[in-house]
Amino acid sequence: MTDRAITIEHLTPARLAETLEVLIPLYEAHYEPFIRTEIAKGAVPNDHQQTTFIALVDGKVAGAVQILLNYVNTETYDLIWLSVGKNYQGLGLSKKLMDHAENYVAQMLLKGEPGTLMLADFTRHQNPDSKFYLNLGYTEGPLMHDARRLCLRF
């Protein structure tokens, strides 16, 4: 198998439809309107309220992650919609997207100051044995109303 070209870049309006094509099938149908709305917000400049990054494999959208400024605390950022298309799983894209998002928050948003990253662990809700976020250095937080675990990284 040949090496595949993998890059991470900001989502742009030109890549929005392709990104939605990859993400929407990965979620239950009732999430579709939220995905369409929220991912679109991250494709245009919005004063860092929402920033979406996409993973490209051989020039095609393969996954995404979105950074959302937490409205309770301006030094806290939520990482949401981390997703990798079924045809691209197993390439390490989730870790690459997380690394990119975490570095962006640290360097561009927090500018070296302390802060917190927060996410809902949908992965472990679907696969109880998954330690993906724990292996990335996140700490378990409380359960949310829908039994999904919050994970935090300081």
Taking the alpha carbons of the first and last residues, their distance comes to 39 Å
Which fold name fills CATH's third level, the topology of the domain at 6-111? Answer: Aminopeptidase
Q: Approximately how much beta-strand content do the residues carry?
A: 25-35%
Annotated CATH architecture of the domain at 6-111: 3-Layer(aba) Sandwich
Form type: globular
Q: Number of DSSP strands?
A: 7
The largest sheet has its strands arranged as 1-2-3-4-5-7-6
Low-confidence stretches: none
List keywords for this structure.
154 residues, alpha+beta, Aminopeptidase, seven-stranded mixed sheet, 7 strands
Task: Break the fold down into its secondary structure elements and pairings.
Elements: E1 6-10, H1 16-23, H2 32-41, E2 50-57, E3 60-69, E4 76-84, H3 93-109, E5 116-121, H4 122-126, H5 132-135, E6 139-143, E7 149-153
Short structural summary:
With 154 residues, this protein is α+β, with helices and mostly antiparallel strands.
Describe the structure.
The chain is of the alpha+beta class. The protein has a domain at 6-111: 3-Layer(aba) Sandwich (Aminopeptidase), CATH 3.40.630.30. It is 29% helix and 31% strand. It contains 5 helices and 7 strands; from the N terminus they run E-H-H-E-E-E-H-E-H-H-E-E. The chain has helices at 16-23, 32-41, 93-109, 122-126, 132-135; strands at residues 6-10, 50-57, 60-69, 76-84, 116-121, 139-143, 149-153. The protein has a 7-stranded mixed β-sheet with strand order 1-2-3-4-5-7-6, sandwiched between helices. Strand 3 (60-69) and strand 4 form a beta hairpin. The longest helix is centred in the middle third of the chain and has 17 residues, at 93-109. The protein is globular and about 35 Å long. The termini are far apart.
